[in-house]
Amino acid sequence: PTGALTPAFMQSETRTIHAALIAALPEAQRSRIAAIPLDITSEMIEPNAAAACTRSTKRAVMLITTAMLTLCGGIAETRAYDELASTNTYDRYARQVVDQLRSKRPVTGVPPTLVAGPLARDPRKLARERQLFQEQVAFILAHELAHHHRGHTSCVGSGDASRADAEELARIASGTVPMFTQPLEVESDTWAVYNVMAAGNGRAGGSWDEEGGLMNLEFFARLREIGGASILSAFFSTPPLPPIRRPLNEKAARPWAPGRRPPRAPGGTEGLPIPGGGTLPIQIPGLTSP
């Protein structure tokens, strides 16, 4: 009734997005991750997503927390509302989230009083809100899928997790995750951009592009600006940080075309542009070309 995305709807959308991303991958990559289950973990304090291997069974797992879905829903709603109403609910929501993360309280959606009136249920706002939610979640899931199908994890099996695995999933969701290196994060971002755009190409209701991923990065950069570096979740605190990842993802989106895969990147050290000037030396891995 308020125009917000409900938890049940967001979880259903997430599973649909996950399936679309897998279907859009080339066969070589798809075969490596098709049997890895997606766990939507009931964790409302830590907005997180992860690709990992369980210590007990070396089983491949992939998860996204309900806190992350709630956050994506809040970002999507405030951005869609602000576009129509010329308001600043996005900034006010960011400050709400900072307060919640700082005090270790559950992340909640947008208060009904913040997004109110006829525009809260305007069909244009609702359609835009859904698309922005889809694009954000698609980027997050595609990034984690890439960690698995690009061989960044050391998993030897997949399938449903055991009880011991389930307990480990809860620990991973709360923020205790292995950090991948900068090159592997860059590679996963590149594959995520291509995967999202391929899965969303010609999609009914609006194609997907890199906008959702860029929104995620911008929002967490905003959280860092307001609340400090310690406020970032495990998903966005892994280097390179959001301000550096954003131009790389924009660069990855420019050459995208249907059926195309990330091109082979040159080896060696390259300088990544840093906002405000300067570069960060980073090793760029070679990506598999078609």
What does this structure look like?
The protein is mainly alpha-helical and 290 residues long. The protein has ten helices and five strands, in the order ααβββααααααααββ. The strands form two sheets. Strands 1-3-2 form a three-stranded mixed β-sheet. The protein has a two-stranded antiparallel ribbon with strand order 4-5. Helix 1 packs across helix 3, helix 1 packs across helix 7 and helix 5 crosses helix 8. The longest helix has 27 residues. The radius of gyration is 18 Å and the shape is globular. The C terminus is likely disordered.
- Nearest-integer average pLDDT: 84
Number of DSSP E strands: 5
Name the helix and strand elements from N-terminus to C-terminus, one letter apiece.
Answer: HHEEEHHHHHHHHEE
Rg, rounded, reads 18 Å
Structural class: mainly alpha
Q: Tell me the helix content.
A: 40-55%
Strand portion: 5-15%
State the separation between the terminal residues, measured CA to CA: 47 Å
The backbone outline, from C-alpha atoms, is globular
Strand line-up in the sheet with most strands: 1-3-2
Q: Give the biggest beta sheet.
A: 3 strands, mixed
Continuous helix count: 10
Short description:
By secondary structure, the chain is mostly helical. 51% of the residues lie in helices and 9% in strands.
